[in-house]
Inverse folding.
C-alpha cells in the first residue's frame, strides 16, 4: 500500500497516525465511562455504550477536526455529517457485536457477554468511524 492512502484531508500526511492518537484518548475516556456505567453504576448495555460515544464524540469532533484532519472550515454540514457518522457507526458496530457475541458465548452470564460485546463494538466502531470521518466528514 502506498503512502497516499494514509494521507489526510488537504494532502496532509499522517492522518491515520493522528487519528490513532486521538482514538487512544477517546478510548480511555469513553471506555472508562462505559465500563463504569455498566459495571459500577448499573446502567444497561445500550445506555452505557451510548454514553461512551456521547462523551467521546464531543472530544473526538474537536480533536479530529483540528488535529487529525486539519479542517479549518466552519460548516453546519461538517457538524451534521460528523453526528450522522457517529450514529451510523455506533448502531452498526454495537448492533452487530451483541448478537454475534451472544451466539458465540451462549450460556455465559449476561455481564460476560455484554462486556465482550462492548469491547468488540468498540473495535468495529473505530474502523467504521475512521473511514466515515476520513472519506465523508472531513474529506
Amino acid at each position: 500500500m502506498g503512502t497516499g492512502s494514509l494521507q489526510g484531508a488537504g494532502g496532509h500526511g499522517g492522518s491515520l497516525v493522528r487519528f490513532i492518537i486521538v482514538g487512544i484518548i477517546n478510548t480511555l475516556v469513553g471506555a472508562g465511562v462505559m465500563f463504569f456505567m455498566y459495571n459500577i453504576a448499573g446502567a444497561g448495555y445500550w445506555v452505557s455504550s451510548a454514553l461512551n460515544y456521547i462523551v467521546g464524540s464531543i472530544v473526538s469532533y474537536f480533536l479530529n477536526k483540528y488535529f487529525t484532519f486539519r479542517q479549518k472550515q466552519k460548516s453546519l454540514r461538517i457538524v451534521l455529517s460528523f453526528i450522522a457518522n457517529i450514529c451510523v457507526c455506533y448502531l452498526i458496530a454495537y448492533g452487530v457485536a451483541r448478537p454475534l457475541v451472544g451466539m458465540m458465548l451462549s450460556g455465559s452470564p449476561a455481564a460476560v457477554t455484554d462486556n465482550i460485546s462492548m469491547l468488540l463494538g468498540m473495535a468495529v466502531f473505530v474502523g467504521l468511524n475512521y473511514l466515515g470521518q476520513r472519506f465523508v466528514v472531513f474529506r
Summary: The two ends are 20 Å apart (CA to CA). Residues 1-12 have pLDDT under 50 and may be disordered. Helices lie at 15-39, 45-68, 76-104, 110-137. Residues 9 and 139 are 6 Å apart (CA to CA).
